[in-house]
């Protein structure tokens, strides 16, 4: 008994801890967008790309700043290299044909050196500084584009969850009404007032409706998980959406947006195209700069010491200082037209980039025209779908009355119900289209 009580207490404590540890999120659409822009996994990496580009820019800058390097070398010679010399070179009386072997150096050698180097002029370095700045701009624009895409996808996903939620509510209500109709029909059939076919026809409709309901419930769970992934929150956490589909749709009907002027050069896609063009222009500059001379200076300072016994660390050991300064000039003279070939390739790449920018501008204008048309059509379709839904509801209601009074068969009722169900889904989809089409248009305009 005591063991069972202990196990029960442990289970309760574990359950309570799990409930406390579980985080719940609730967002309006705007809050969801704001959260995604900060916490989406792609946005986090986009921030890191910008930070890495800043570090890269500084790395390039340091190449033209003073560089200091130090080195310490120790050498222990076990066997000296022998050099041959004529014997009479050191002893005039010796036979000139005899060879004596000489060894130079000391067994232990230590050298400490400090080098200061400074780039004075290099065309490639100047181009590199400009390239680093352009690279940073590319990373920043890529981050802006990622944010725009995340915003559009979050709007679509948020709407998909609301659509699934409304679909579940409508289908559950339809199922409830149909179950009552079926129950009433069975009673009428038991009294012999109608044929069994009427019951069977309603059973077919109910089975199809039940299947659709279960499928929409599964889709809703998937849609919620997709939205969680976009928001950068754990799939096990709870997520509650505050906005309602109908309210959100009405808030997204903006006829003023349709009159807004479009300037392709203000879009991020155009700016990215110009970034690429700029990078190709810098590549051409780089190839041209390779024909210029480069100039650098260097200053060396150090100490060395020599001994036949290892006593280099002894305070009495003599250390000899040395220092020198030098300037190096590198002048490209002839490359067998290799530089010229690379320069021509860079020119071609630049012209291709310019053509791509022109193409991007034209595509953006076409995308705007299509997005504007789609948004305008979605607003029109919303009104049409709402009218169709009202008509379908009236037709279904009339057929319900006729069916109960024996003036219409189950087939006519089922057909009217299917028409109503289709109109309901069309209206929900029309509401979602208004939200999504505006998001697409705003991504281009803003």
Please give a quick description of this structure.
The chain is α+β, with helices and mostly antiparallel strands and 446 residues long.
Q: How does this model look, in words?
A:
This protein has 446 residues and is of the alpha+beta class. The protein has a domain at 47-67 and 121-295 and 332-445: Outer membrane efflux proteins (OEP) (Up-down Bundle). Helix content is 65%, strand content 15%. The chain is built from 9 helices and 8 strands. It has helices at residues 2-21, 29-39, 41-62, 123-190, 196-231, 245-251, 268-289, 338-404, 410-445, and strands at residues 24-27, 67-76, 82-86, 99-103, 108-121, 238-241, 294-307, 320-330. It has a 4-stranded antiparallel sheet, with no helix packed on it. The protein has a two-stranded parallel ribbon with strand order 1-6. The two termini are 69 Å apart.
Give a quick set of tags describing it.
alpha+beta, two-stranded parallel sheet, elongated, four-stranded antiparallel beta sheet, 446 residues, Outer membrane efflux proteins (OEP), 8 strands
Largest sheet: 4 strands, antiparallel
Q: Encode the helix/strand succession as letters.
A: HEHHEEEEHHEHHEEHH
* Fraction in helix: 55-70%
The CATH level-2 architecture of one domain is identified as: Up-down Bundle
The geometry reads as elongated
Q: Output the number of helix runs.
A: 9
Layout of strands and helices, then pairs:
Elements: H1 2-21, E1 24-27, H2 29-39, H3 41-62, E2 67-76, E3 82-86, E4 99-103, E5 108-121, H4 123-190, H5 196-231, E6 238-241, H6 245-251, H7 268-289, E7 294-307, E8 320-330, H8 338-404, H9 410-445
Parallel strand pairs: 1-6
Antiparallel strand pairs: 2-5, 3-4, 5-7, 7-8
């Amino acid at each position: 008994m005591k063991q069972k009580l202990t196990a029960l207490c442990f289970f309760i404590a574990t359950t309570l801890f799990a409930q406390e540890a579980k985080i719940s999120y609730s967002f309006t659409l705007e809050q969801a967008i704001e959260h995604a822009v900060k916490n989406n996994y792609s946005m986090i990496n986009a921030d890191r790309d910008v930070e890495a580009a800043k570090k890269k820019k500084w790395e390039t800058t340091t190449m033209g700043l003073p560089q200091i390097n130090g080195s310490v070398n120790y050498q222990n010679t076990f066997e000296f290299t022998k050099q041959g010399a004529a014997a009479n070179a050191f002893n005039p009386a010796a036979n000139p044909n005899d060879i004596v072997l000489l060894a130079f150096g000391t067994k232990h050698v230590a050298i400490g050196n400090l080098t200061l180097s400074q780039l004075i002029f290099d065309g490639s370095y100047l181009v590199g500084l400009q390239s680093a700045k352009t690279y940073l701009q590319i990373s920043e624009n890529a981050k802006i584009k990622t944010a725009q895409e995340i915003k559009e996808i979050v709007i679509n996903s948020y709407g998909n969850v609301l659509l699934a939620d409304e679909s579940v509510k409508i289908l559950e209500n339809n199922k409830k009404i149909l179950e009552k109709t079926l129950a009433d029909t069975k009673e009428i059939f038991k009294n012999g007032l109608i044929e069994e076919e009427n019951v069977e026809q309603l059973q077919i409709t109910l089975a199809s409706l039940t299947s659709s309901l279960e499928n929409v419930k599964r889709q809703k769970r998937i849609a919620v998980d997709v939205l969680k992934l976009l928001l950068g929150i754990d799939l096990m956490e709870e997520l509650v959406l505050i906005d309602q589909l109908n309210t959100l749709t009405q808030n997204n009907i903006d006829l003023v947006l349709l009159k807004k002027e479009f300037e392709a050069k203000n879009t991020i896609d155009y700016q990215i195209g110009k970034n690429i063009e700029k990078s190709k222009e810098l590549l051409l500059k780089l190839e041209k700069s390779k024909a210029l001379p480069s100039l650098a200076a260097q200053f060396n300072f150090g100490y060395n010491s020599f001994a036949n016994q290892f006593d280099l660390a002894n305070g009495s050991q003599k250390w000899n200082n040395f220092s020198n300064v030098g300037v190096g000039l590198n002048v490209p003279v002839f490359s067998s037209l290799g530089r010229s070939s690379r320069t021509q390739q860079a020119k071609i790449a630049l012209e291709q980039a310019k053509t791509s920018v022109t193409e991007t501008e034209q595509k953006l204008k076409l995308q705007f025209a299509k997005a504007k048309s789609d948004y305008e059509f979605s607003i029109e379709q919303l009104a049409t779908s709402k009218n169709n839904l009202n008509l379908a509801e009236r037709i279904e209601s009339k057929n319900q009355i006729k069916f109960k009074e024996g003036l219409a068969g189950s087939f006519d009722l089922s057909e009217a119900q299917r028409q109503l169900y289709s109109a309901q889904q069309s209206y929900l989809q029309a509401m979602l289209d208004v939200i999504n089409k505006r998001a697409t248009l705003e991504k281009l305009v803003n």
